[in-house]
Each structure stands twice: as structure tokens, then as C-alpha cells.
Amino acid sequence: MARYAEKLHIVPLLAPAASTAGGGVKSYAVRLNNTQWLSFLLGWGDQTTDDAAVTTITVEASTAVGNTTAAGDTAIPFVYRLSGVPGTDDNWGDPTACPSTGLEITGAQDNLTLLIDVDPASIPALDSDAIAVRLCFDAGDQTSSYASYAVAIIEDRYPQAEHISAST
């Protein structure tokens, strides 16, 4: 029972909420100072009636915490795996490198889950003053009705029963 409480620090970053207008949404940021490894788990429902519509998911290194931006925020590359459709395919896609420009999810890719891995040790070379990392969703001009959520799964540098705050 202690394994769950001490080895992984699970932090909700974006509560499940329906998006009703296009544009950008930023998750809360995860501080890097006690992070050995960082994964993001995010999911969404039925996105839009326009299968050609695109939502771009990026990861940003930042000097700001919370869900605000800083002038020097830097989009960074990451590795991801995309789930199969729930109830029909429980296999995940192969680990795939994504450039800093982000991953484009089309309106036809409904009801999926995405696992993103970020190596905190790589951040200083990409953004030397970054103290945190966050997810960004940009739906452009589309009006959508999908519900999305994001959770950070953190391997703490110093695991303990009572975790050091990673998002404030």
C-alpha cells in the first residue's frame, strides 16, 4: 500500500471541463526542483463535428507557476504514446518523438488518452531559467464540445509519504 503513496506524486493540472470556444488553454505548471521524471496523462472526449479541425498540444518550459504565462516560455520537444479507442483497443501506440511545435490531434481522433514523457534533466539546455513545465492546448478558431483533463505523474527526486508541492 505504501508503494503508491511514496513512489508516484499524482497532481491534477486541468480539471475535466467542456470547452465551448476555440483558442488556447494552459494547464497548471509542475515545478521541476524535486522532479526526477515527469509524465502527463491527458484525455479528451468527442471533440467537434468537423473531423478536419485540429487541436495542437505543446509542452512549455516556464519561469512561472500556476496557469499563467511568462514572456520567456519555451515550447519543448517531448515523447508521447497515444491510446487506442476505449472499449475496442487497449494497446498504446509506439513511443514517438514530437518536436517543440507540438502534436496535432484532429477532430476525428475522439475519446483518446495521451501519455507524454518529459525528462526534467533536459530542460536547462532548452530553457536555462525554467522552473516549471506545463501543457498547452490550442484549438484555433474551432468551437468544440469535448471534455479534457490533464494529470501529472511525477517521480519525485526524494520520495516520501507527504509530497513537496509540485504545482504551487
Task: Write the topology of this structure.
Blueprint: H1 2-7, E1 9-18, E2 24-26, E3 30-31, E4 35-44, E5 54-62, E6 74-76, E7 78-82, E8 96-98, E9 103-106, E10 113-118, H2 123-126, E11 132-138, E12 147-156
Antiparallel strand pairs: 1-12, 2-11, 3-11, 4-10, 4-12, 5-6, 5-9, 5-11, 7-8, 7-10
Give a short overview.
With 168 residues, the protein is mainly β. The strands form 2 sheets. Strands 1-12-4-10-7-8 form a 6-stranded antiparallel sheet. Strands 2, 3, 5, 6, 9 and 11 form a 6-stranded antiparallel sheet that branches.
Task: Describe, in plain words, how this protein is organized in 3D.
This protein has 168 residues and is mainly β. It has a single domain, classed as Jelly Rolls, CATH 2.60.120. Helix content is 6%, strand content 43%. It has 2 helices and 12 strands. It has a 6-stranded antiparallel beta sheet. Strands 2, 3, 5, 6, 9 and 11 form a 6-stranded antiparallel beta sheet that branches. The mean pLDDT is 82.
